[in-house]
Amino acid sequence: MFPQQLYNCYMDESGDEGLSPRSKPWFILAAIIIKENEESAVRGFEDECKQRVWFDNNHAHAPTQIHFRSLRHSQKIGVAKVFSEKPFVQIVAAFLKPRLVKESVFGLNETFYRYATRYLIERISWYVGDRNGQANLVFSNRRYFRIRELADYIMLLMNSGTEVRNVFRRDRIRAKNSDTEEMLRGADICASSYGNALNPDEYGVLNYQSAYELKGHFYRYLNGRVWSYGFKGFPCQSQEFVSMYPYAEDWLK
Description:
The protein is of the alpha/beta class. The chain is built from seven helices and six strands.
């Protein structure tokens, strides 16, 4: 019997969990999924970004690490273009917070984050499970992050008859700082690109060009469907979502 394929899954977020009128309307969780035996083809993407986005354009200095939110608009597009050439699959779960019910349920605490994480974990498990694989999960560390509790929660989901498939092991669920893990900075490129496309900047502008560069990497179901698989918007349906963000129609093709 052939050994199961192992997939490395790196997750990051964009937006905030607040429900006040001043908070950003969308909270984004994104994962990049990479076959473990192909990860070497993705690692080092930052050096390529520095060469192509900075040095080839006569910029003497490039950032030591690529933190997407710190880049200028044109640099974000260039970095997304370079990263889009790498072998990975992306899954994005986006939550329209003004429609989420009660702040007592989805407030500024782990409850909302775990609720959002469930949508992402489900889809990772579908993708990996359909390929008879197993998954390593690496979360971007966050303030007051309780990785042990989150790992327990994922195990509970997997063993309680939910749609989370049996592709995870507790000892393969970790949290790392993005400063120490280049692949988490890759996940940040995806999360922030779709966050920028859905959450207006300080000038009220939606910047969707970097998301456009990455759209070819969405997880697609067997019939080619992206909505609810590679991209899940909640709580809304695909037609309503596209009516609100017409450029997102390209994401779902």
